[in-house]
Design a protein that fits this description.
This protein has 312 residues and is an alpha+beta fold. The protein is 69% helix and 19% strand. It has two domains: 155 residues, Helix Hairpins (Orthogonal Bundle), CATH 1.10.287; 86 residues. The strands form two sheets. Strands 1-8-7-6 form a four-stranded antiparallel β-sheet. The protein has a four-stranded antiparallel β-sheet with strand order 2-3-4-5, with no helix packed on it.
């Protein structure tokens, strides 16, 4: 038998080259397969990183919007407390003015009664003076005694002077009473004007309270919902937002209108010529409150807006 060295001497050099080429081809295929694996791994990592970045952006936007709505709610509640306090203060002032008006009217009535009594007394005094004058004239005619007539004249003069003093006092009291009545009328008119002014202020405050109440209700409504912002391209096809599919069909930037197709819960909703900032409401099975789609910007080939869904 020939030894190993002798066998090697008879090996074909062509077979050695074939074996070398086979090994080289296998190595190249292995390198290509390894390169493909590395490429797909890098691509998957990049897509994962982009997905995380988009998710972080939407979480950040949602948190910012929630913070803004909470701030608006606190501000509106503070405004409501302030307006309520002003309303209570105004109601107290109106109550005080109405009480003062009632007192003024009562005093005015008393003054009128007193004025009537003084006028009646003045009338009686004048009637008594006229009666005594007639009696004096009758006595002067009937009595011939001049001394007695003189005494009667003196008595008449004293009586007349006394009556004049009484009349002057009554006239003075009547003037004071009329001044008091005028002053009370001025106070009453002022109180009436104050009541009217405060009634108008009360109406304004109530209007402000109603407006703040509506704003608070709107903010609370916003806090009870989740918002998903989106941008639809005219040639972008279907976009899935939350559990709703949206597709922009057409835009009219001149008239600020658009045409959109919505697919939710297996139902297709086709909305044409929808105006900007016009909400589109629709219901999803199992949810009592409606979903809302609102577009707040219309371009030539795109629209932007948000999807609002009730929190479950």
């Amino acid at each position: 038998m020939d030894g190993p060295d002798e066998t090697k001497q008879y090996e074909d050099p062509l077979m050695d080259r074939v074996r070398a080429q086979t090994r080289s081809s296998r190595k190249r295929r292995s390198d290509v397969d390894q390169g493909k694996k590395n490429y797909w791994g890098i691509l998957a990592g990049v897509l994962f990183a982009v997905g995380l970045a988009v998710l972080a952006y939407f979480l950040y936007e949602s948190q910012q919007q929630l913070t803004f709505l909470n701030t608006r709610l606190e501000s509106s509640q503070q405004d409501l407390v302030t307006v309520t306090e002003q309303l209570e203060t105004s109601e107290g002032r109106i109550s005080d003015l109405q009480s003062g008006l009632s007192n003024s009217e009562s005093q005015l009535g008393d003054q009128k009664q007193q004025l009537n009594r003084y006028q009646h007394l003045y009338s009686n005094l004048k009637s008594g003076q006229a009666k005594q004058t007639k009696n004096l004239e009758a006595l002067a005619i009937s009595k011939a005694d001049q001394a007695e007539v003189g005494d009667l004249k003196d008595e008449l003069k004293e009586t007349t002077d006394g009556l004049k003093d009484d009349v002057s006092a009554v006239n003075s009291r009547i003037g004071e009473t009329e001044g008091s009545v005028s002053e009370l009328r001025g106070v009453a008119d002022s109180n009436r004007a104050g009541v009217v002014s405060n009634s108008e202020s009360l109406g304004t405050l109530r209007t402000t309270v109603d407006a703040n109440t509506e704003q608070i209700v709107s903010v609370k409504h916003s806090l009870d919902r989740d918002y998903y912002n989106f941008e639809l391209q005219k040639s972008g096809g279907v976009m899935n937002v939350f559990n709703v599919s949206l597709q922009l069909k057409n835009t009219d930037s001149k008239r600020q209108r658009y045409h959109i197709e919505i697919v939710a819960d297996g139902r297709r909703i086709n909305k044409k010529r929808v105006n900007i900032n016009e909400p589109i409401f629709f219901y999803v099975e199992g949810i009592k409150k409606p979903y809302e789609v609102l577009i707040n910007r219309v371009g030539k080939k795109f629209v932007t807006g948000y999807l609002s869904v009730p929190k479950t």
